[in-house]
Write a structure and sequence with these properties.
zinc, Cell_wall_metabolism_enzyme, hydrolase, about 30% strand, Glucose Permease (Domain IIA), about 30% helix, Dup_hybrid_motif, M23ase_b-sheet_dom
């Protein structure tokens, strides 16, 4: 009788272990599927970002070709900050913490609350104002020395194509249009068509 009881108990223990093992296997399968799905999303986002960057390059090349600025001049290195906030992504190669993909950031990303004022870093003329796939609402300003500044993911745009803007003038507000990470300002500074590190030039 005791032997039968022990055998029955051993069987129950083994069945419980087997059920637990099956659950662990299923959990690992789900985790693996989730990781693969996230990786695919990351690859897709990386591709979309590169496509958006390529379209932006073409836009700026077209603007440079039409520009009346004869040559690129010097730019002072104490420019007005485009908005108040915290820099969360710097210029250069950036690894995405969630998707583990590496992309190039041609500017900086500044975390700020939606509605935070956005300012022109220095005087210039608005050469693009509106929606741009991958960047949301953007403003592109051509400065008098052939530099360009770009302000992306805006909520409000307060200037129009051809408007003359002065240093420190409010041109829009921070938003999350085209952003995958909440409200922020994507800011780029370009010497002609070439992206440069904005942090070198901002005061």
């Amino acid at each position: 009788k005791d032997l039968l009881f022990e055998l029955a108990e051993t069987k129950r223990d083994k069945e419980a272990e087997l059920a637990n093992l099956k659950r662990m296997i299923e959990d690992k399968k789900e985790l693996l599927a989730s990781i693969r799905s996230e990786k695919r999303k990351g690859i897709q986002l990386e591709r979309e970002l590169k496509d958006a960057q390529a379209r932006l390059e073409r836009l700026i090349e077209d603007l440079i070709a039409k520009s009346r600025v004869a040559k690129i001049g010097p730019m002072a290195k104490n420019l007005t900050w485009p908005c108040k906030g915290k820099v969360i992504s710097r210029f250069g190669r950036v690894r995405h913490p969630k998707y583990n993909t590496t992309t190039r950031n041609n500017g900086i990303d500044i975390r700020a609350e939606k509605g935070t004022p956005v300012y022109a870093i220095t005087s210039g003329t608005v050469s693009y104002s509106g929606r741009f796939l991958g960047y949301g609402n953007i403003i592109l300003i051509e400065h008098d020395n052939g530099f360009y500044s770009l302000y992306g993911h805006l909520d409000r745009i307060m200037v129009r194509l051809g408007d003359r803007v002065e240093r420190g003038q409010q041109i829009g507000t921070v938003g999350e249009t085209g952003s995958l990470s909440g409200p922020m300002l994507h800011f780029e500074l370009r010497k002609g068509g070439k992206p440069v590190d904005p942090l070198v030039w901002l005061k």
